[in-house]
Amino acid sequence: MVKRFRPDDMFDILNRNGWAAKQPLLCDFVVMLDYLRDKKVVGTQSTGNFPLKHVKGITERFVEPPELEERVGDKVYRICSENDLPYLVLLHEMACELGIIDGGQGKLWKLHAACEQFTSLSAAHQLWGLFRIWWEHFNWCSAYPVEGLRDGLPKGFRSETLKLLRCLNSGDQTLFDPFAATLIRKTGMTWPIEDQDLGESICKGGVQAIVIKRLGLFSVLEAQFESHGRGISKLVSFKVTEQGGLMLAGLFEDALPD
After folding, report:
1. Measured between alpha carbons, how far is 100 from 163 in angstroms, rounded to an integer?
2. Lowest-pLDDT choice from 5-9, 42-46, 75-79
3. Helices 176-187 and 196-207: crossing angle, nearest 10°?
4. Would you say 52 and 81 are in contact if contact means Cβ atoms under 8 Å apart?
5. Is 189 within 8 Å of 157 (Cβ atoms)?
6. pTM
7. Which DSSP letter does residue 210 get?
8. Start-to-end C-alpha separation, the chain
């Protein structure tokens, strides 16, 4: 259970020992902004996305550069567009939502004056701004873009997620399966399939992608996996970090979309 939220305390703890400044998501976000400042990146004519050469130029500077091609047997599969890298899309969309970059189809992606204001903030304020804009304004289904969520998440899914996470003690391991089952039951999350046992399993996959994995990017949660061999692993448990507990406490339920 997190203590009463005090903004100054949160920012002090997020900045302590340079914690916020070391977070990969924030480092990669700044890398993207620096690249757009230094290079002339014109959005593609079809979607306005970053062209592939610039996708490579940005991501190769990331803390953990993604693989842009994969060899399977004699075949090599390469990404075709920015949309093949959901993490980069997330960073791109957050920058647009914050109003610090602007561009589009056949237009130069450029930094707004607000970008200078953003980069002048402490790392804690920057990370908090990214986290809050994602939690309150983003389409969470984009993290699990499958047909079963075409109508969106159940009403109040974010609020219920927040309530459940706030009940957890920072640093304590929480088993994933019971947590996901509780969230699914409380929100009425279902899957359009006759086999409801399979449907619940798919819903748990959605909770893992939408809640656990996304919050892991912001270092709000740390997940524990169990190896099943041949590169297969299963999410077993997770814990709310000390910093994550404070960030969750700073969200206002009445500001959350249904």
Report:
1. 31
2. 5-9
3. 110
4. yes
5. yes
6. 0.91
7. I
8. 24
